[in-house]
Amino acid sequence: MNGYSAVLAAAQQLPDEDRLRLIDALWATLPPEATVAISEEWGLEIERRVAELDAGIAETVPWSKIHAVALGKIDRNL
Known about the structure:
Layout lengths: L2 H10 L3 H13 L11 H16 L7 H15 L1
């Protein structure tokens, strides 16, 4: 088993909250210019949402609130 496979297998054994914390920590280590391949459907959805933002018709929510709500839901399910 190579390094990636071993780390992935170990991470999959973690509780949900720890896996989310790991994802958050790993994401934070990526440089801003790092890119992630996305499906065509996601690309179209992103374009639609950007158009709504540009038109001033999108309702936005700060990341801090989204993050707190998501972690709260995880805590209630543990």
